[in-house]
TrEMBL record:
Domain of life: Bacteria
InterPro entries named among the record's database cross-references: Cytidine_deaminase-like, FdhD
Family to which the UniProt record says this protein belongs: Belongs to the FdhD family.
SUPFAM superfamilies in the record: Cytidine deaminase-like
Active site location: C117 (cysteine persulfide intermediate)
Organism: Telluria aromaticivorans
Protein name stated in the entry: Sulfur carrier protein FdhD
Keyword annotations: Cytoplasm, Molybdenum cofactor biosynthesis, Transferase
């Protein structure tokens, strides 16, 4: 089934009139199109960022974003969370702990803002060295994955992407256990948002993210690796390529980074010790 060839619009999509060129003629059609709305993240009355996102699973998004951006260090630092629709979009109002609010205000003084591209709004290269790299993940993690687990999880992603099947316009991020069984998936028009939603969902379900690995239907950019490392995923498997900067960060963070996970093949860029050694 091609994108748009559905009789209903799932959550996060709308049915819109369109014109389709088929076999040399133009025909009236109705297409299912992914929704994309501005979402404001507000902390203790301070509007910190406005992201363009899919409008579902926004509680998960708010928690995952707050953790991934180091606005809070623990989910328990978020005391209240309300999602409110406005005439211009959606506002997520959060009340955070006083210590987290102090860090947020200090961060805002240091930079004008930060968006999904990872470094937008950073005022100097000093931030890149001082703030981008967290302490590395424990190198002695007991979890070792089979190579086939990566492909088992990636193959299972297709059946769990309802919004993508309907629209062809969104990314997904999933969490799989040690055997590659896919247990949680989140979708969004933004690949970073999908990963934030996944992190938030795992926190809500009290899942130990370090007991499995993350799978994403996108490239592995710097910020995707940064979010994965901060969420304590030991391994990030991407269907597409990483960037050189992402590989550098994954190496320093102690994260196993796998790219091009498709068609029975994958490339390991960092920390291959987390994958079972195959006989030569």
């Amino acid at each position: 089934m091609n994108a748009g060839e559905v009789f209903f619009a799932p959550e996060g999509a709308s049915r819109l009139p369109a014109a389709c060129w088929v076999d040399g003629r133009l025909e009236a059609a109705t297409e299912v199109v992914a929704d994309e709305v501005p979402v404001a993240l507000v902390y203790n009355g301070i509007s910190h960022a406005v992201m363009l996102a899919s409008p579902q699973d926004l509680e998960d998004f708010a928690v995952g974003f707050s953790l991934g951006e180091r606005i809070v260090r623990h989910a328990r630092d978020i005391h209240d969370l309300d999602v409110e629709e406005t005439c211009n979009g959606i506002a997520i109002e959060m009340r955070i702990a006083s210590g987290a609010l102090v860090r947020l205000k200090e961060s805002r003084r240091a930079r004008t803002g930060k968006t999904g591209c990872g470094l937008c709004g950073v005022e100097s290269l000093a931030w890149f060295e001082d703030d981008a790299f967290d302490p590395p993940l424990a190198s002695a993690t007991p979890v070792v994955f089979e190579h086939a687990a990566l492909h088992r999880a990636m193959a299972a992603m297709a059946a769990r992407q309802q919004l993508h099947h309907a629209t062809g316009a969104v990314h997904a991020a999933g969490w799989a256990d040690r055997d590659g069984s896919l247990l949680c998936v989140r979708e969004d028009v933004g690949r970073h948002n999908a990963l934030d939603k996944l992190v938030g969902a795992l926190v809500a379900a009290q899942v130990d993210s370090a007991a499995g690995f993350a799978v994403v239907t996108s490239r592995a950019s710097f910020e995707m690796v940064q979010k994965a490392a901060r969420a304590a995923f030991p391994l990030l498997a991407a269907i597409s390529a990483p960037t050189a900067l992402a590989v550098k960060l994954a190496e320093q963070a102690g994260l196993t980074l796998a790219g091009f996970v498709r068609g029975g093949r994958h490339v390991l860029y960092t920390h291959p010790q987390r994958l079972a050694r195959m006989p030569v």
